[in-house]
Write a structure and sequence with these properties.
alpha/beta, Rossmann fold, 6-stranded parallel beta sheet, 14% strand, binds uridine-5'-diphosphate-xylopyranose, NAD, UDP-glucose 6-dehydrogenase, UDP-glucose 6-dehydrogenase activity
C-alpha cells in the first residue's frame, strides 16, 4: 500500500516507521523543516528505544521518506492523521489548530477511493466534522477513526502488536470499503490474531479518552490509598499487591508514588472534562477533577516530605533529584512530575541539582533556571536529601553502600516506591517512600 502519515511527532514518526517495516511505501509529512531534516537523516527527534534502528532499516529499503511538502502525499491512497492536540494555554480544552490546518492542506489533494484515517486524540464530535469536510471536497473519499494506544518507551511494540485495533466507521458501503482498505494496511497484525473492533465514529473517539481516563483514575485511586496509608501507618505497595491479586482489579497501573504526567494522561482528562461540559454532560466526569487533584497533591506531598526530612526547612539545602523525564525510557519532560517537584523546591529556596540519563537537554530547555548534572554522582555529591522521582533502571539498581560517602546526609525519598527499604536502611540511610511507613 502507498500511505501518507501527516504529522511526524511522537505518534506519526513511530507509525510511519512501523508501516514501512510492514512493507508499505510511506511518506511522512511535517510542517517543521527541522523535524523533517532529522527524520530524513534517520535520527529520531526524541528518544524512543529501537526507533533509530527501525528508521535506518526502513529508509535504506527506500520505502520511507519524509517531506515538508504536503503535495508529496499525491500518490498515497491512505492518509493517517497523526498531528498533536495539545492543551490550550490557560484552558483545559484541546487545541485543534494542527488538526484543522493539516486537514485544510490535505482535502484538496484527495482522490476518489482515498481513505483518511484519524489517529490523533480529539474531542468527541471532531471526526464527524472532518468527515463532512472530506465529503464536501471529495465525495469519493472517506474518513474513519482509528485511535492509537501507544505508550512512550514501548511505542514500536505497541504499534506493531497493539492489544486491539479499533475502527470507527461511517455507516453504509463507504465504511465497509474503508475498513477493507485498512485491513490491508494492518494485514500482518490482523493475521497474528489481534482483535479488531468496529464501531461508529463517536465511539472510536471516546475509546481513547475513556481508556486514558480509566488509567489515570486507577493511578489516582492507589495514590488516594497512599494518603490513607500515610495517615494510618499502612504500606500502599502491600495493599496494591493484595488488591491487585483480584483479577477484576489487576495489579497493573497500581503503582503509587508521584503520580502521572506526560503528554497524554493529564491533558486528555482535562480536555475530556471540557468536552463533556460543552455537551451538557459535565456531571458525568466531575470525578476526573478529583483524579487530577489527587495527582497534583502527590507533588505537594513530596516537597513537604523533603522539608520534614530536612528538619523543617529546605532553604539553602542541597537536594539531589534523580530523574527528569515523566517516566523511564523516555526523554519527554512534558508535565513531568519530577521537574515540577524540582522547580517547586528551588522556588522555596533549596539548592537543587537534577540528573537524568536521557532528558537533560529537554529539561534544560523547559526549565532553564534549574541546575543539572550529566552524572548521577555529580547530582548526589554533597546532597542533604536525595529524591528518586523517575524510576530509571540505573537508579533502581543503585548500591546504597557505595553512595554513603558521596552525600552529605544519607536520606532518600523514593518517589516511585521502587527501592527496597530494608536494603537502604541496612546501609545506614533514612528511607521514606510515598504511602509507606
Ligand atoms: C499513556 C497510555 O498508557 C497510552 O495507552 C496512551 O496511548 C498514551 O498515554 P504514556 O503517556 O506513554 O501512555 O505513559 P504511561 O506508561 O501510561 O504512564 C503515564 C504516567 O503514569 C507516567 O508518569 C507514569 O509514571 C505514571 N504511572 C503509571 C504511575 O504513576 N503509576 C502506575 O502504576 C503507572
Amino acid at each position: 500500500m502507498h500511505i501518507s502519515v501527516i504529522g511526524c511527532g511522537y505518534l506519526g514518526a513511530v507509525h510511519a516507521a512501523c508501516m514501512a517495516q510492514q512493507g508499505h511505501t510511506v511518506v511522512g509529512v511535517d510542517v517543521l523543516p527541522e523535524q523533517v531534516a532529522q527524520l530524513s537523516a534517520a535520527r529520531p527527534p526524541f528518544f524512543e528505544p529501537g526507533l533509530e534502528e527501525l528508521l535506518g532499516e526502513s529508509m535504506s529499503s527506500g520505502r520511507l521518506t519524509f517531506t515538508s511538502d504536503i503535495a508529496d502525499v499525491a500518490g498515497a491512497r491512505v492518509h493517517f492523521l497523526c498531528v498533536g492536540t495539545p492543551q490550550k494555554p490557560r484552558e483545559n480544552a484541546a487545541d485543534l489548530r494542527y488538526v484543522r490546518s493539516a486537514m485544510d492542506a490535505l482535502v484538496p489533494l484527495l482522490q476518489p477511493g482515498d481513505v483518511v484515517v484519524g489517529k490523533s486524540t480529539v474531542p468527541v464530535g471532531t471526526a464527524e466534522e472532518l468527515a463532512a469536510q472530506v465529503h464536501q471536497a471529495q465525495p469519493g473519499a472517506t474518513l474513519m477513526w482509528n485511535p492509537e494506544f501507544l505508550r512512550e518507551g514501548h511505542a514500536i511494540e505497541d504499534t506493531l502488536r497493539p492489544d486491539r485495533i479499533v475502527y470507527g466507521l461511517p455507516e453504509g458501503p463507504a465504511g465497509v470499503e474503508a475498513a477493507a482498505v485498512l485491513d490491508e494496511v494492518y494485514a500482518e497484525a490482523l493475521a497474528s490474531g489481534i482483535s479488531r473492533l468496529t464501531t461508529d465514529l463517536a465511539t472510536a473517539q471516546l475509546v481513547k479518552v475513556a481508556a486514558n481516563s480509566f488509567l489515570a483514575t486507577k493511578i489516582s485511586f492507589i495514590n488516594a490509598m497512599a494518603e490513607l496509608c500515610e495517615a494510618t501507618g499502612a504500606d500502599v505497595t502491600m495493599l496494591a499487591d493484595a488488591i491487585g491479586h483480584d483479577d477484576r482489579i489487576g495489579r497493573k497501573f497500581l503503582n503509587a508514588g508521584l503520580g502521572f504526567g506526560g503528554g497524554c494522561l493529564p491533558k486528555d482528562i482535562r480536555a475530556f472534562m471540557a468536552r463533556a461540559g460543552e455537551l451538557g454532560a459535565d456531571q458525568a466526569l466531575t470525578f476526573l477533577r478529583e483524579v487530577d487533584s489527587i495527582n497534583m497533591r502527590r507533588r505537594v506531598r513530596m516537597v513537604d516530605l523533603a522539608r520534614e526530612m530536612c528538619g523543617g526547612s529546605i532553604v539553602g539545602r542541597r537536594v539531589a533529584v534523580l530523574g527528569a523525564s515523566f517516566k523511564p525510557h523516555s526523554d519527554d519532560v512534558r508535565d513531568s512530575p519530577a521537574l515540577s517537584v524540582a522547580a517547586q523546591m528551588q522556588l522555596q529556596g533549596a539548592k537543587v541539582v537534577v540528573t537524568d540519563p536521557q532528558a537533560i537537554d529537554n529539561a534544560q530547555k523547559r526549565w532553564p533556571d534549574l541546575a543539572f548534572s550529566a552524572s548521577t554522582d555529580g547530582a548526589l555529591e554533597g546532597a542533604e536529601v536525595v529524591l528518586l522521582l523517575t524510576e530509571w533502571p540505573e537508579y533502581v539498581g543503585l548500591d546504597p553502600h557505595a553512595l554513603t560517602d558521596l552525600v552529605a546526609a544519607p536520606r532518600i525519598i523514593d518517589g516511585r516506591n521502587c527501592l527496597d527499604p530494608q536494603q537502604w536502611r541496612e546501609a545506614g540511610w533514612t528511607y521514606r517512600g510515598l504511602g509507606r511507613p
